Structures are given as structure tokens and as C-alpha cells.
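From the shared-data thread, chain only:
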Amino acid sequence: MQTEIVILENEIHKQYPDVLNILLKDHTTQKNIFWATDNYEQLGESYHFEAQILPELITGENGNIIMPRVQKDKLLQQTRSKDMAEVYTPSWICNAQNNLIDKAWFGKENVFNSEVEKSKGYKWTINKDKIIFPENKTWKDYIRDTRLEIACGEAPYITSRYDTTTGKFIPIKKRVGILDRKLRVINENVQNSGEWLEAAQAAFKNTYAYEWQGDSLLIAREAMLVTFIENYKQQFGKEPLLKSIQFIAYIISWNVWQMDGLKGVIPNSCGHKTEISLNHFGETETKHTFCEGCEKENIYKHNGTYCLIKDWSNKDIETGKKGRRIRFVDLI
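Structure, as C-alpha cells:
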């Protein structure tokens, strides 16, 4: 796996069988995530707003279609910012805000790094010492602490593989994302590969994010997967087995999902709906319904498709297996 900011779908498709299919899965609709943007419609009908993102559309000769925002055309960046309020946050701001979360969790400042202001902007200095935990908490408590990035874009708050505003690659030891910190703690406390994988799975299961636009969502999912592979390789000098990569991809496909964050539903799934039925006299009746949630701005009354996520700590009622399916809106 390359150590560059661009993650090529061709590389995933060739090196890791079935992983790209897993990363494209939408578990709420049981289809693939969809584009949810008009930025690719000039490529044909399969790239229109409501079309699913299929592997064949982004591999082969189309393998470089989806690119990080920093590498997109400047005009396109401006359009996405205007139309979808797409604004990408510098890594130093992600770090500062994640530091505030950890300050509250640890009860002290500068646990993972210290923020410094230099002539060319804000930076951070990594704390090279092993992370020390409060008396009433352990490293396992930390990796199992549930955290969520809202409207995640390319997920810079979760994994800072690169600065989303400059495109500069960030080495593993200098990363500051939520998942980066959890993996650092695992690296410092686990040397056995089996135990490491189990701990990493717990870290991923407790890290969530959602995003509207399909291309950004896929980039976020890919970044998290590559972060897993990079950390394992740094720790053990080789890549994890394919089945381990596939399982992490499966966790990511549940935990990082496509959603309209203001409504809790699949983007653009609300609206005017017409139902045609037969009455007791065999006559056709037409019923028109509008979305009460949209009209009254009530998140619990939408007629769109409410998004499902997994609570990995509890059993699902239908399957009896670990990983209870719940509506995200029911957590609010």
C-alpha cells in the first residue's frame, strides 16, 4: 500500500479482493453509496447525482476519478464550498479540537502533543513518552471511548494522513486524529499481533462519522482502512492478512455512513410521495403525502429512509449476533 495522500481504487481492487465492494456498501439501503453530487455527471448517466458508485466506475481507466479535495480543480472546490458548505479544516485546528476532547477525558493538557505557534502558522510537538492514563482509567477504556465526527468530509478529525488544505502527507507518529491517537495507544501497549488486531477492531468499532457526498465518504472510508494497514505494518513489519483487512473494511462500512445530518435520513430520500391502491369497490385511489419532518423541521417525522448504524456492544434482535442495528436518529 502506498504512503501518499491519493488512495487509488485500482490499487485496492487489485491488492485486496472484495475490499472495494465492502467500502462501497450502504447497509441502510442494501445498495452501494451514491454520488450525491453533480460534479461527475459529465461522465455519463452512471455518474449522475442519484446513481450508485459501482467498482467499475472508479477502477480501470477510471481509476483516478475520485481525488482528495486539495487536488480538485480550484473552481470545483469553490463550487462545492458554495453549494454544499464543503470547508476543509487545517490539521492544526483538528489537533487543537481533539486536544480539547482529550483534556476532558484525561483531566490534563498536552497528553499527545503540545501546540506551538511558529512564524509560518500553528504546529504541534509530539509527546514522545508513553501515554500515561489516570488511576481510574486504562488504555482499553480510551480505545473503547465512542467518538463521532459529523459531516466528516474526508475525515481529517479521525485520521490525519495528510493536511486536507495543503495536501502534505503526515507521518504516522505525527498524526493527530481520533483514530490515530487510539492506534498510537494500542501500538504502545500491545506487541502480539492477535491482541493488536482485537484492540484495533475495538478502536474502529467505537469511531463513527457520517457524510453527505459519496466521493468524500469513500475517501474517508479508504483513509481509515489505509491507516489501519499502515499502523499494522509499522508495528509488525508486514501487512495484515486479507481477512483482517476485509473485517476492518466491514466495520468502517457500518460506522462511516452516508446521511443528511440535519434529517438523519439518506440524502434526498424525503419528499412528495404518491401511493396508488384499490378500495373495497375495486376503484383506484391515489394518495399524496408530503414530508411532515421537512415541513415542520421535526427530525423524527421525515418520510425519507432513516439511516442505520451498529451498536457493536449489543446483540441484534433479528440475527442474535453481536452488532445491534439501530436508527441513528433514535440516539438523538
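The radius of gyration is 21 Å.
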